[in-house]
Each structure stands twice: as C-alpha cells, then as structure tokens.
Design brief:
1 helix
C-alpha cells in the first residue's frame, strides 16, 4: 500500500470507488493525489470570507442590528473514490432549512 492509498478500505479487502465510496470534506490540496482520487465537498472559502467581511463592515459602519442568515452552497467534487449507486436506486438530498429547492438529486 502506498502512502497515497485511501486508508481503511484496502485494509478491509475493499476497493474504494468500486466496493465502497469514500468522501472527504474541504477539498484539501492532496485530494487528487490519493489513490483513487478523493471525492470531496468544496467550501467556497473566498465567497465566505468576502461575505463575512461585508457583514462585519456593515456592523462597524452602522448601529448594531440583528444578524442575517445566508446560505452559501458548497460544491461536490466527484472523483474516483465514489462507487456508483446500485441500479434503480434514487438518491435525494433534502433541501437545507430555508432553501426553496433540493441541493442535489439524481436517479442512478
């Protein structure tokens, strides 16, 4: 096993991306270097930072007011570490609280 292999699956006699799906979070720089490349959730950090700065600036420039909620959608970066869903299976991801439509959904 190479250092870049996804831990756990190979040790259990399984193949990541075929027998099991492995998904990471934050889309680290090394995600492409794993074997197989790691499917991950990418957070839009520049957009999050800009919005945080704008809200902070608004509070500094004016009288304190109630904070507002904002949904900044992450992005699913599909790589080779995820296995296809079994045929005929419907995968539905419920909408976050306050959202009008589901984030994603597909029929395999």
């Amino acid at each position: 096993m190479r250092d870049r292999d996804l831990p756990g699956a190979k040790d259990a006699g399984r193949s990541a991306g075929q027998d099991v799906s492995v998904v990471g979070f934050d889309d680290i720089l090394l995600a492409d270097l794993f074997e197989p490349p790691l499917t991950t959730v990418r957070q839009p950090l520049p957009e999050m930072a800009a919005e945080t700065f704008q809200q902070l600036r608004a509070r500094i420039d004016s009288a304190p007011a109630a904070g507002r909620s904002l949904l900044i959608r992450p992005r699913l970066v599909v790589r080779e570490s995820t296995a296809p869903a079994p045929t005929g299976t419907t995968v539905a991801i419920p909408a976050p609280a306050g959202a009008e439509q589901p984030v994603a959904g597909r029929t395999a």
